[in-house]
Design brief:
By secondary structure, the chain is α+β, with helices and mostly antiparallel strands. The protein has helices at about 35-45, 65-80, 130-145, 160-180; strands at about 5-10, 15-20, 25-30, 50-55, 90-100, 100-110, 115-120, 125, 130, 150-155. A 4-stranded mixed sheet has the order 1-2-4-3, covered by helices on one side. The protein has a 4-stranded mixed sheet with strand order 5-6-10-7, covered by helices on one side. Strands 8-9 form a two-stranded antiparallel ribbon. The longest helix is centred in the last third of the chain and has 20 residues, at about 160-180. The chain is globular.
């Protein structure tokens, strides 16, 4: 059963994340941050990871803690659901086009977190959402999910399209990486024998 539920409660946020790696991309995400919910929905739908997220945070200050802590909890949920990572593909990549934007993602579920995030978002806001929080989310996901994650804008001029293409490209890469490799379903995908 490649499922997990993580609850993270701090003085700033109260978050519960439920995921099923072998889902259909069903989602029900409610963080109180509209654009972020839209991005989480894209992440679930295009990764085929069922995802339910409930988050309450100190939105009277700003969206930062809610977005970052959701990334932390989602990363922890991925680690728990993957277990010892036996049989997974481990690697995934995607070039994703969305109108004017093209974003490339490559990732490795290595257990070694590292983020390269070259997303050139030309505006400071998408609606009321601070665009700098896109990177903050991916940093938290990478760090707490043990993911080597590279995301690059190849081109684009619309911040909404670039951000959405980033979430979708990460989702498609993650979908490939978490799927079972039918040729090595009982093996850890590393010469070390552990990830």
């Amino acid at each position: 059963m490649r499922r997990s539920t993580i609850t993270r409660k701090t003085a700033e946020t109260d978050i519960t994340v439920e995921i099923n790696l072998d889902g259909t991309g069903a989602y029900d995400n409610q963080t109180g941050v509209g654009f972020f919910d839209h991005m989480l929905d894209q992440l679930a739908r295009h990764s085929l990871i069922d995802m339910t997220i409930r988050a309450t945070g100190d939105l009277h200050i700003d969206d930062h803690h809610t977005v970052e802590d959701t990334g932390i909890a989602l990363g922890q949920a991925l680690v728990e659901a993957l277990g010892d990572k036996r049989g997974i593909n481990r690697y995934g990549d995607c070039h994703l086009a969305m109108d004017d934007a093209q974003v490339r993602c490559a990732l490795d579920l290595s257990g070694r977190p590292f983020l390269i995030c070259n997303l050139d978002l030309p505006t400071a806001k998408i609606g009321s959402f601070d665009t700098e929080l896109v990177r903050e989310f991916f940093q938290a996901l990478s760090t707490h999910g043990g993911i080597t994650l590279h995301i690059d804008t190849l081109h684009g001029f619309n911040s909404h399209h670039i951000a959405e293409a980033a979430f979708k490209s990460v989702a498609r890469a993650l979908r490939t990486a978490v799927e079972t490799d039918p040729r090595k379903a009982d093996a850890i995908p590393s010469t070390k024998g552990a990830l």
